[in-house]
Write a structure and sequence with these properties.
single chain, mainly beta, 3 domains, 2 helices
Length: about 325
C-alpha cells in the first residue's frame, strides 16, 4: 500500500600495544611506550561513563564477543566542524591514527558489557591543542549501522587524558535506507520491532489489532505494536465564554429560596489529538457524517506537530445548534 498521507475519521466526540606497553585497564592506566627515538606518552582517550545504544540500554561489547561483532568507535579530528556520516555510514571527518577502535577495547575482561572503550594514540600522537571528538556506531560495520552518537569536542593538552561523554544514540545515519523496499525505513523498523530488525514489518498488516496498518502507524507516528497508540481524537469539548452568559433567576415555591443560574455561551470547540514530531495535520469537518462532504476547517490547515498532543480551538462561527463532525488528516513533513 502506498500513501503519502493518512486520514482517519472520528465522530463528533471523537582498539596490548606490541611495542612493550603495560596495560592495566578499567579505570585506564597505560605506561609510556618504548620507541626507538625515546619514550612517547600516548594520548589516552576513554569513555567517561557507560554508553547507551539506540534502545537506551548499555551498548554491548566485551572479550566474550568477537572483535568484528563489537560496535565501532572512531576518534576523529573536528577540523572545520563535526560532520555527519555519509549515507553508507563512513565518516567525513578525519580519523586519528589508531583512532579506529571498538566497544570493549582495552577494558578489563572482568567488566562484561560495561559500555566502555579505551584507546592510546601515539603513532603519531595528535598534535597539541588539536580538537577531537569520538563517534560510536550502534553496530560493527558501517553498512549495518543505523544510529550513532557523538561526544563533546575535546582539546589535546599535554598528558591530560581525554574522557568522552555521550548523549542518547538517536542520530540516524540514513533516514531513507529501506533494505526490503517496503516503504518503511530501516531505522524505524529497527526501533519499532523492539528486537533491532530493519525488515520486521509488513506495511499492510495491522500488527497490534488497533485498526491501523503498520504503514498508517508510520505515517501517523504511532506505535505499531501498541493497540493503545492510535491516531484518534482524544478530546472534542465546548469552549465556553468567560463573559457572555444568560442569567436565569427562579424561586423554589416550597422553600421560597431564590436561585440564580448563569448559562455561558459556547464560543467554539476544543479539539485535541495525539501528535508526533515531523508531522503536519489538517482538520476537516462536515455537518452530515453519512455521505457528507468534508471541508477544511478554516485556520486548521497544515498544522505543525506540538508532540505529544496537538490542540486546535475552533472559533469559527457556524449556524446556531449546527452539529459538526470532524476528521483529521496527517502526513510527514518534508
Amino acid at each position: 500500500m502506498t500513501a503519502d498521507a493518512l486520514r482517519l475519521n472520528s465522530g463528533s466526540t471523537s582498539r596490548l600495544w606490541s611495542g612493550g606497553a603495560f596495560l592495566v585497564c578499567a579505570g585506564l592506566s597505560l605506561a609510556p611506550l618504548a620507541r626507538g627515538d625515546g619514550m612517547v606518552t600516548p594520548l589516552h582517550v576513554t569513555a567517561g561513563e557507560a554508553i547507551q545504544n539506540e534502545f537506551a540500554d548499555t551498548i554491548k561489547g566485551d572479550h566474550t564477543i568477537p572483535r568484528d561483532e563489537r560496535p565501532l568507535v572512531h576518534i576523529m579530528y573536528v577540523g572545520d566542524g563535526i560532520l555527519p556520516p555519509l549515507a553508507d555510514g563512513s565518516p567525513q571527518n578525519q580519523v586519528a591514527e589508531g583512532g579506529e577502535t571498538y566497544i570493549g577495547a582495552l577494558i578489563a575482561p572482568s567488566l562484561l558489557n560495561s559500555g566502555l572503550f579505551a584507546a592510546a594514540l601515539d603513532d603519531p600522537r595528535p598534535p597539541e591543542a588539536s580538537a577531537l571528538f569520538v563517534r560510536v556506531y550502534n553496530d560493527a560495520t558501517y553498512s549495518n549501522s543505523l544510529f550513532y552518537t557523538d561526544s563533546q569536542i575535546m582539546s589535546v593538552s599535554g598528558n591530560t587524558d581525554l574522557y568522552a561523554h555521550f548523549g542518547p544514540m538517536t542520530n540516524i545515519i540514513d533516514i531513507f535506507r529501506d533494505t526490503d523496499g517496503d516503504g518503511l525505513p530501516d531505522w524505524w523498523e529497527h526501533l519499532k520491532s523492539q528486537i533491532g530488525d530493519p525488515t520486521f514489518f509488513d506495511p499492510d498488516e495491522d500488527a497490534d489489532g488497533d485498526g491501523m496498518t503498520v504503514e498508517q502507524e508510520y505515517i501517523a507516528g504511532t506505535d505499531p505494536l501498541d493497540p493503545e497508540s492510535r491516531f484518534i481524537f482524544t478530546r472534542i469539548a465546548p469552549l465556553y465564554s468567560e463573559t457572555n452568559y444568560v442569567e436565569h433567576v427562579w424561586t423554589d415555591p416550597e422553600t421560597e429560596i431564590t436561585y440564580t443560574q448563569q448559562i455561558y455561551a459556547v464560543e467554539g470547540e476544543i479539539i485535541s489529538w495525539p501528535s508526533a514530531a515531523g508531522r503536519l495535520y489538517e482538520i476537516e469537518y462536515t455537518t452530515n457524517m453519512i455521505g457528507g462532504e468534508y471541508q477544511t476547517l478554516p485556520g486548521a490547515e497544515a498544522l505543525a506537530a506540538t508532540a505529544p498532543t496537538n490542540t486546535f480551538i475552533n472559533l469559527n462561527v457556524f449556524e446556531d445548534n449546527l452539529r459538526l463532525y470532524y476528521r483529521a488528516r496527517v502526513w510527514k513533513a518534508e
